[in-house]
Amino acid sequence: MKQTNLKYSCLIAVLYFGMNVNGQVAPKDTVAKEQKIEEVVLIGYGTQKKENITGSIGLVTAKDLADKPNSNPLSSVQGKLAGVNITNTGTPGGSPRVDIRGVGSLTGNTVFIVDGMITTDISYLNPQDIESMSVLKDPSSLAIFGAQAANGAVIIKTKTGKGKPVYNFNSYIGFKKVTNIPKMVNSDQYIELYNEKLINDNGSSAGSISRANFPADTDWYKEIFRTSIINANDFSATGSIGKLNYYGSLGYLQDEGNLAAGSGINSGSGFNRFNSKLNLSYKITDNITDNITIGNNFSFSKMRTDISANPLLTAFIAPPIFSTINPTTGDYQYFDGYNIANPRAQLDLYRSQRREERLLNNVFGEVKFLKDFTARISYSSDSYSPSQYEFTPTLTYIPDDKETPSTLVTRNYRNRNYVWDNTINWKKSFGNHNFDVLAGFSRTRTSVSQDYWSARGVNYNGTNESLNINNGTGLVHHIIDVPDLNVDQDQQRIESFFGRLNYDYKGKYLINGSIRRDASSQVSVDRARVFPAVSAGWVVSKEDFMSGQNVFNLLKLRASYGELGNPNIGRGYTANISQILSGAYFGNVGAPATTVDQFIDPNIGWETTTGKDVGIEMALFNNKLKIDAAYYDKDSKNVVYGVNQGTVSGAANWRNFVTNAYSFNNRGFEVSVNYNTKLSDNVSFGVYGNFTSLKNEITSVYLDSYLETGASLFGNSIIRLEKGHAVGSYYGYDVAGVFQTDAEAAASGQPGAKAGWFKFADQDGNGVIDTRDKTFLGSPIPKGTYGFGVNFNVYAFDIAVDFQGVFGNKIYNYNREQRYGNETWDLDMYNNRWNGAGTSNTNSMITSNQLIIAPNSFYVEDGSYIRIRNIQVGYNLPKSFANALSITKLRLYVSAQNPWTSFKYNGFSPEITNTDRVQMGIDNNIYPISAIYTMGMNLTF
Prior knowledge:
Layout: H1 6-9, E1 40-43, E2 46-49, E3 57-61, H2 62-65, E4 84-87, E5 97-100, E6 111-114, E7 117-119, E8 130-136, H3 139-142, E9 153-158, E10 166-178, H4 187-202, H5 220-224, E11 228-241, E12 244-255, E13 271-284, E14 292-306, H6 312-317, H7 343-348, E15 351-369, E16 373-384, E17 387-392, E18 407-430, E19 433-456, E20 473-481, E21 491-505, E22 509-520, E23 528-539, E24 552-566, E25 577-586, E26 589-596, E27 607-620, E28 625-643, E29 657-678, E30 683-693, E31 695-701, E32 707-713, E33 716-721, E34 730-732, E35 735-738, H8 742-746, E36 758-760, E37 775-778, E38 784-794, E39 797-807, E40 810-813, H9 814-817, H10 827-832, E41 860-862, E42 865-876, H11 879-884, E43 889-903, E44 922-923, E45 930-940
Parallel strand pairs: 6-9, 40-44
Antiparallel strand pairs: 1-2, 3-8, 4-5, 6-7, 8-9, 10-11, 10-45, 11-12, 12-13, 13-14, 14-15, 15-16, 15-17, 16-18, 17-18, 18-19, 19-20, 19-21, 21-22, 22-23, 23-24, 24-27, 25-26, 27-28, 28-29, 29-30, 29-31, 30-38, 32-33, 34-37, 35-36, 38-39, 39-42, 40-41, 42-43, 43-45
Protein name: Enterobactin outer-membrane receptor
Domain TonB-dependent receptor plug: 50-153
Keywords: Cell outer membrane, Membrane, Receptor, Transmembrane, Transmembrane beta strand, Transport
């Protein structure tokens, strides 16, 4: 950690649920007469000195999160931590995907423990309220959370108060702009390719088009995108009133989004969030109750998300020869003869909005007794009630005979969650032997339900009040509890017992052991599981033989092993039943009957994860240089997902039988380096860097089978899950070039091929191209991720630049492949297409033939990139001037986020976010990442 950040890290709370702790001063270091402030790290149900940590934990401070124009705190961490791959979404208010040391499960999510509450979504949380964050990376650190943490865990401590009142006001305003917009053909080029396609497909120019019939030249991206405003303001107060410590804040964020709301009913893609925070702790200090502390951590947020019908794919394929508005009728232009929506109309004539109110409250009490014991009880509740409507009017850009009445759908969700934790902690030293023992009991419950209404013919007049479901016809109402969907239970409950021992001898020899027993309502068999973990460390720098050296302030070796489980996977307990008319006969008379439609595995059990980790930590040259390196090896077993059940006939799900089907391995190496130095009293310099390698491989599949899944075109799936390959790997034909002559194509054994078609490689060498020649085409999982940056403080100025990137991964450009007839083309296709022998050996001819767009390597592109993640320049008002204004601090800054990205991919951005991890690398109508330019201020008084 940077020395300039130590003042933040030493204030980290003792327990993740809100207890104050002060940094401790070590009496002695390995360098004579030098003292240092020891870093304290958040761990599960407690804290520990960083020097004594035996697991792998990444640290994030308040300074890492401050002044970044991101609604979600995790977005600001991208590129900052080794072993943590964060993939951002461009959608305003969207949550990034977090993968910690590879893919832990195909269905679960990373959990966040915020002041005691366990959640998988922190979009409600204002980054300015966070004091510190610990990312638990290895199973030995995670095992104390057991069934909650199979996909990793992040412990977040929000700010607390102490001392004199301090007030802070932070504000920034800026603009967002979509960058790297793909270059598409103009109308002249489209007409040229369209007419060329007619000759290629039909051998005739019959039906050709000209500019005389299509005078328009529309740039559909300009039609749907806009430069938008982003603004955030928050105010906080912190301090003490007697024995009451407090922190309170109010914040408001507005992000207009880059999809332009036009003259229709469109609400755009904006996001607004109001949030409030109040943290209180009170120490009862009479003679009897001197060791009792009580407290409350309260958060309330109100969010609104405008959800447009995402028109990015239609903007990519819509021909430029059509106008937005039909000049004759004044309605949106209908693309006569084209099965393609008008992107502008699609954006304008749909309205959906999601409103969310979320209240989280944590109350706790703590008592210290018998000198060495501390008992604590904590109860956290999460009340979350989003509502959403989806309104589609009578469309005005399709033929009259195809118009349907407007539709309105409303959804009201109810989510009620709680976490009840009880712990007792014993800390004792016997000479040089130091013990820290924890025991606890925890219970969690998650409840989910939904009201669903639908109606037709609702008249919308521009106000939300007019969207009243009772004003429509054909009203349908469902109260949907999750059991009614036959996929899960309404209430998910976990009950747990856990314990942990931390032991060290003279601070040199470190041992950590933990065990947790979880019982889950999600598992019908083997309901309770036990998850153990052990880790050890050796602080070599404290040995006597190191006392004479002046290089290492810290040299520590560590190793760990741990086990985790995941019961939170969807499953069906009852088979689907299909009605068959006249399916049963009595004599010669048929009667209705029912039959089991698909096979269900009622005995789906736990997913399990085991992991090993070995590492080394070093601090050198008076703590100026810090290095942390580790090798990790993690196995996920019995992962629940669908699999091909090819030996079963008659079942509707024979290609997707869900069970404990997969096991896979993640292993790699990670290293982080930080160097900070003070060149003079007024000049300091810092540099950091981190790198993580990853190899993911499916190690076993149920019955040695496989699954072809994900996006598909004409029945050809793009992804195949099979032993020996990475999760999400693409599967199709390998393009070995382009046929230059009809004779070459005829001799290839490739059905229907002719000059200008892709030449598919004959993988089995039998002289015939068929499905047996499909092969694996690449993986969406990066082989390496990295981040690095520099920062300077020169008198009153501060400058910081952060870089971030990935390499070794592939993207499947599904946008480019989706061709059904007369869609437009990108400029690369125009410039590099085959148009006669010798013209191209990379891009095919222009054609609508389905055989040429079968899944193949042409659509698999390099996903590597390097990006300037953030540039920030700040100026601190001189103290004398600040004092004259009766303020403590005023800092002004300007920043640029994502201003530059270098990549080769033929799309907006190589940073692809899909909620489905199996399809994590498929670009299919993905909202693009924007560049954000802001100016802001930090005021303290």
